[in-house]
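Internal tracking record. Fields below are filled automatically when a chain is submitted to the structure queue. Please do not edit lines marked as system-generated. If the sequence contains nonstandard residues, flag them in the REMARKS field before resubmitting.
Queue: standard
Priority: normal
Entity type: single polypeptide chain
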Amino acid sequence: MPLIQISQTPGLSDEQKAEVISAVTRAYAESSGKNPSSVWVTITEVPRENWGVGGTPLG
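SYSTEM-GENERATED OUTPUT FOLLOWS
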């Protein structure tokens, strides 16, 4: 069972999340030869204040 985890800042609608999950599942299944029904995808929304890039907080 492949598990793909996506971490991002909040902001996508439920419809956008569903499309991301669908697109990522399709891409992984096509490139790996796995059955799409075996691919798990999670989206974790992390508030901007909990992110940092290059040593600088984003929040």
